[in-house]
UniProtKB/TrEMBL annotation:
Keyword terms of this UniProt record: Plasmid
GO biological process, one term: tRNA modification
Naturally occurring in which organism (per UniProt): Amycolatopsis japonica
Keyword Isomerase: no
InterPro entries (UniProt xref): DpdA (IPR055645), TGT-like_sf (IPR036511)
Claim: Hydrolase is one of the keywords in the record: no
Name under which the protein is recorded: DeoxyPurine in DNA protein A domain-containing protein
Domain DeoxyPurine in DNA protein A stretches: 5-269
Domain of life: Bacteria
Classification via Pfam families: DpdA
Gene3D superfamilies the record matches: Queuine tRNA-ribosyltransferase-like
Amino acid sequence: MNVETDFFLGISEPRHLAAPVPVCIAHQRLQRTTWWVRRDRGLPPYMVDSGAFSMLDSIPDGTPRTELEEHGYWRTDPREYVTAVAEYHHWIGPPVMVGIQDWMCEDHILAKTGLDVDEHQDRTTENYLELTARWNQHFRTVGDSKFIPTLQGGTPHDYVAHIRKYLAAGVDLLAGPVGVGSLCRRQATSEIVAIIRAITAAAPGIRLHGYGVKTLGIRRVGHLLATSDSEAWSVDARHSEPLPGCVGTHKKCVSCLDYALTWRGRLIHSLRSPEPIGGQLDLFEEGIAA
């Protein structure tokens, strides 16, 4: 992965679609406005996230919540989601990837839904198949489907098992990008490394998109990832002073594009360095994702 071109900066404001770098924005954020910036006129690519790890609710520590975490189910109907993505395709420009409505497998999510990892994987696979089928049925003339299958699990073995489920459903995981979910809140980088290595060993040539992979994880397995994304800059901004040029404009740079781009520059610099630079990797070690 080339972090300069393959790292998608997570953004929460639709106006930040004008950013001169690859960006990732959640469906729910785009639904809150009728004014969008075109991304197909010389700007780098963008991707749409389903909102699985979006700031759907404001809570004290700034930790993103999910629809599953809040309600134990997806409130957004797949039909509504597909129609919305078609609108983004038309008004913003074709996204390079669109996240599906996957079912995360963290322990607290499983406790909320009352289901096990196996059932979450089945529902994730079924959602990918439904979204793709609905797109091909109603919007094929708009362009090819950009929904990407996502692997879910708790252990490396779980993720490999999910690969087999996709294959059994007739999904070619080597045909395009494949997301890896339930990574961003893992505290141990070694867990992320073990999962990514298990997946690539089981499916050589697979092009993985890492949702919210930590900096140390990218440093160790970045060569096994095709792309990655994170909105951790916003959490970093919540606990930092505003940029000098922002003093008097806002108290915190949690929605500031200048801060986001500065953070991205530090991230790229840290990954180029032979050793981690103190203070610049902590924001990923929070385990916060876009």
